[in-house]
Design brief:
With 441 residues, the protein is of the alpha+beta class. It contains 15 helices and 13 strands. The N and C termini lie far apart (70 Å). The N terminus is likely disordered.
């Protein structure tokens, strides 16, 4: 009898112990975090998360109730980019690369400045800009340049159009980042990231055009975007181009070795050449006319052209993508969506999303309708849903969980065109939600 009681207590103790172990293991899995995660610099994260939709909309409530969200990890730079992009004369890239709002966040430490880079596609561009700044600094220290500075005099403000083509003076994103674009973004023309007033080119038209042409030539020699979002490079281009133009400095600043992919302003070759060869005023007018021909309302066109997070190069690239889908309905929604870009990350997200959708459209599955409730959504003639996502690494966050089960995106076929990859947990959850993910698109 005593032995039976002892055996019962032992079995009960073991059962309780196993239950506690199971609960602890589940708790650890539910709250897995990366201990080495770096605290982001500046206010790059924040913003209230979108309200969660009713759990179990597409699945059983119990299944979603057990879904654990995860913190994005920290990666090693050497596993994300080739050595040439991670170190070179006068610069290094931090070894640890956190994921913030689904983009890799690189940090470039250079003798010409410190640069935070949002996204793997932006890294080669910024590295090339570092090399360009080094070249410009080297040239600025020569006696020949100093003499030309005196002859050139002070650089005047050349035109209001020049103001329009310059983005606000930051290369960092705002709280919320690109994941904000996967929630419903308000339908009014609000949240413009900064505006300027368009106007005449100014008094000395010939001089202004000559200076601008010199600036575009200089940018082309250096292999950088003439309308770069990098404020440090932008100012240096302004100054050196003026000295070359007004001071008659006949030096060629071509960089002999270009970083692979660095001069790719857009995935469209036409855009890459046009931004170098066309005066900014002509580009502005051409973009406006194309948007108006698509039926975009004048107020939307104006808001689009005045959003300074969208550099003139990005505006031109987006208009070119829209033009390639000219017979597709709903393009005016994309333009309205673009006006609400509130950071460089978001501006690039919109442009790259449309370029991805164009590639899919031209690849054999035509898009019949484009909507932009947040994010941009393509719909095929058979009712399929295609969502372009120019993201580096998608973890299963609350934001992504809400997107995966949105009732307005229900369809017989749902596809995400993902530039990067999913986390293992996100892979499972998106598959369970009925999504097909085309990674590395």
């Amino acid at each position: 009898m005593i032995r039976g009681k002892w055996l019962g207590r032992a079995l009960l103790h073991n059962a309780q112990h196993n239950t506690r172990e199971d609960a602890m293991r589940e708790e650890r899995e539910r709250h897995t975090v990366t201990k080495t995660r770096r605290v982001p610099s500046g206010a790059t994260v924040g913003a209230a998360l979108a309200a969660s939709l009713i759990l179990g909309m597409a699945f059983g409530t119990a299944a979603w109730g057990q879904a654990a969200f995860e913190e994005p990890p920290v990666f090693t730079a050497a596993n994300l980019a080739p050595p040439a992009l991670l170190a070179g004369p006068g610069f290094t890239v931090d070894r640890q690369v956190p994921v913030e709002t689904s983009l890799y966040r690189f940090t470039i430490r250079a003798d010409v400045g410190l640069f935070e880079v949002g996204g793997r596609t932006l890294l080669p561009i910024r590295v090339q800009e570092v090399k360009a700044l080094q070249k410009l600094a080297e040239t600025s220290n020569t006696a020949e340049f100093s003499e030309a500075v005196v002859q050139a005099g002070a650089r005047p403000v050349m035109s209001a159009v020049n103001m329009l083509t310059h983005p606000v003076d930051t290369i960092s994103g705002l709280p919320g980042g690109v994941e904000r674009m996967f929630g419903r973004v308000g339908a009014t023309l609000e949240g413009i990231g900064g505006a300027s007033t368009t106007g005449q080119a100014g008094g000395a038209v010939a001089r202004a055009l000559g200076y601008e042409a010199e600036r575009r030539t200089l940018a082309k020699e250096l292999g950088v975007d003439p309308y770069t979002s990098n404020p440090v490079l932008r100012k240096k281009l302004d100054d050196v181009a003026w000295v070359r133009f007004a001071g008659r400095l006949g030096v060629n600043l071509s960089i002999s070795v270009l970083v692979p992919g660095s001069i790719i302003i857009s995935s469209t070759t036409w855009v890459n050449s046009t931004v170098y060869d066309t005066p900014s005023g002509d580009l502005v007018v051409a973009n406006q006319k194309k948007l108006q021909a698509m039926g975009v309302p004048d107020a939307t066109v104006k808001a689009f052209m005045e959003n300074q997070w969208l550099t003139l190069s990005l505006k031109t690239a987006l208009v070119e993508s829209l033009d390639r889908l000219a017979r597709v309905a709903g393009l005016e929604e994309v333009v309205a969506f673009a006006t609400r870009a509130a950071s460089l990350d978001e501006a690039r997200f919109v442009v790259q999303s449309m370029e991805m959708l164009v590639r899919y459209h031209q690849g054999g599955t035509p898009i019949a309708l484009v909507t932009a409730p947040g994010p941009i959504v393509g719909r095929t003639a058979t009712g399929g849903v295609v969502v372009p996502a120019p993201l580096d690494y998608v973890a299963w966050t609350e934001r992504m969980g809400g997107f995966a089960r949105r009732p307005d995106l229900q369809a017989t076929q749902r596809i995400v065109l993902l530039a990067g990859k999913l986390s293992p947990l996100a892979t499972q959850r998106f598959a369970a939600a009925g999504w097909t993910i085309l990674e590395g698109f």
